[in-house]
Write a structure and sequence with these properties.
The chain has 19 helices and four strands. Helix 3 runs antiparallel to helix 6. It has a four-stranded antiparallel sheet, covered by helices on one side. A hairpin with a 5-residue loop joins strand 1 and strand 2. With about 500 residues, it is an alpha+beta fold. It folds into two domains: about 300 residues, no CATH class; about 110 residues, no CATH class. The two termini are about 50 Å apart.
């Protein structure tokens, strides 16, 4: 970062601190309200439904058994989980059981049957099942799904919009009243979302200063992402006028740096949610990064305790009628001292786990640890001033000498693993000692064992129109056989599972 960019950053921080100082009473009031203002059980119940419905749609456990069947030699465990890798990968059969448990807990969490236990089971099994795809060269940052499940597990997430709530009412328990117990999980979630954005936004700027904005940097990142997905979107940002691209880059940094602070204030919170949701729509359209699991969490900003009654009144044909005064629920029988103590312990545990998660996430951001599990900083997309990109190509040579691109073949791995994951897996397996494992993975699913496998690095211009025109090429790994036999004795055994 150059001196002028550093001066701009210092000036912006100084201005922010100055505004906080002159409005300190308002700032303190909003901060107190954020951490102590009670919330509604309906909002937490709606968040539970949103999360598990999104999870059921995405099925993050999909293909976990296939990942478990990959050679253990190719495992590159995320930071903090090498001990787990050292234990050896669970068998595909065991992983299928865990996948089934995750699926069942997702359904029960969605309808609100044993809501807290369902969320806890999901977090526990998911910490391993979702770890598997993250452990072969590329961390995809699905961490927040486990965070949400953990927050739901340590909060009364089944007190509304759940079968659990119906059971509680049938036993004479009064409807829940506003409480900090219902507010804390959502506010902690919003802070976690803010941290997901804040540190990447800060590190973007620190990596290049104003050059991150006023250069071709954003276009370079977009093109690199298109190449990794092997798909160019209909709306191409590289064809926009430069000022429009710069505006998009500036908006990105301003949003990522400002979201965390905007959610702390009642007035700016709705606008932060609208801008954040729009941001993810834009990144999906322009870069192909959907981030559905994070984008759908913006529905937790909706005040469902107001929206759902309004919808119900409309459906019942009640218009322009003032709401009747709320009925005062009958006082429930006094709980036993033990029950009150258990509730207090539950509240304290929930608070400790929730804010502890915030602390660990902030620490990961401060240390720029993007490769840890299950807590990590999220991708920063630093300044990218190169107009060149790297492609990883894999050529399979059959017994008769015919050469076929891996991604055009019948190899099993191509059918279920994303292209960018395959490339990162192979890049992490370039050690000649890992050649048998690479051969095993690539050969699985082919009708005949190949005579040779070649992994090549191709440098091209980032412009999609020039991807087929290499600037230079380099062979990274070549596995060959001179006697017509498979490159390794393990070549066709990967499909056994």
């Amino acid at each position: 970062m150059d001196g002028f960019s550093e001066a701009v950053l210092i000036a912006a921080m100084s201005l922010g601190l100055f505004l906080c100082a002159i409005k300190r009473s308002t700032v303190i009031e909003n901060l107190r309200a954020f951490v102590s203002e009670p919330g509604h059980a309906v909002n937490l119940g709606a968040a539970r439904i949103v999360f598990f419905a999104t999870t059921l749609f995405l099925m993050p456990w999909r293909n976990a058994d296939r990942w478990a069947a990959l050679p253990a030699e190719l495992v590159h465990a995320p930071d903090g989980t090498q001990w787990l890798a050292d234990l050896g990968l669970a068998s595909p059969e065991t992983v299928r059981v865990l996948m089934a448990i995750m699926a069942v807990s997702t359904v029960t969490g969605l309808v609100g049957v044993f809501s807290r236990s369902s969320a806890g089971v999901f977090a526990l099994t998911g910490s391993y099942v979702m770890w598997l795809p993250e452990s072969f060269g590329k961390v995809d940052h699905t961490h927040h799904m486990l965070w949400v499940a953990l927050l739901l597990a340590v909060s009364p997430s089944g007190d509304a919009l759940a079968i659990d709530a119906i059971r509680q009412r049938s036993k004479g328990k009064p409807p829940p009243t506003p409480s900090i117990e219902y507010a804390r999980p959502l506010r902690v979630l919003w802070v976690l979302m803010g941290l997901i954005y804040f540190f990447p936004g800060l590190l973007k700027y620190m990596s290049g200063g104003l050059d991150w904005i006023f250069t071709n940097n954003l276009v370079n990142h977009a093109r690199l992402t298109w190449l990794s997905f092997d798909e160019v979107p209909a709306i191409r940002i590289d064809q926009w006028p430069a000022p429009l691209v710069w505006g998009a880059a500036a908006a990105t940094i301003l949003f990522e740096l400002g979201f965390l602070f905007a959610i702390l204030f009642r007035r700016t919170r709705p606008w932060a949610a609208i801008v954040g949701f729009t941001f993810h729509i834009a990144t999906h359209l322009l870069m192909g990064i959907a981030f559905t699991s994070l984008r759908m969490l913006y529905l937790t900003f909706v005040p469902w305790h107001r929206v759902l009654p309004a919808i119900r009144r409309q459906l019942q044909g009640v218009h322009r009628r003032k709401l009747a005064p709320p009925r005062i629920a009958a006082i429930a029988p006094a709980h036993s001292l033990r029950a009150e103590e258990n509730k207090l312990v539950s509240i304290r545990l929930g608070s400790f786990v929730s804010w502890g998660l915030v602390g660990v996430t902030a620490l990961m951001g401060l240390t720029v640890n993007m490769n840890a599990w299950p807590v990590a900083a999220y991708p920063i997309f630093p300044l990218l001033d190169s107009e060149l990109v790297q492609q990883v190509d894999v050529t399979i040579t059959s017994q008769d000498g015919t050469e076929t691109d891996l991604f055009d073949s019948d190899a099993d791995i191509v059918q279920w693993m994303p292209r960018y994951k395959i490339q990162r897996l192979l890049l992490s397996g370039l050690d000649p000692d890992l050649a048998p494992a690479v051969s095993r993975v690539v050969s699985c699913g082919l009708a005949d064992p190949p005579r040779g496998i070649t992994v090549t690095s191709t440098i091209t211009a980032s412009d999609p129109d020039l991807w087929d025109t290499p600037v230079r090429q380099e062979t990274l790994l070549a596995i060959t056989s001179t006697d017509g036999s498979p490159p390794t004795e393990l070549a066709m055994t990967a499909c056994a599972n």
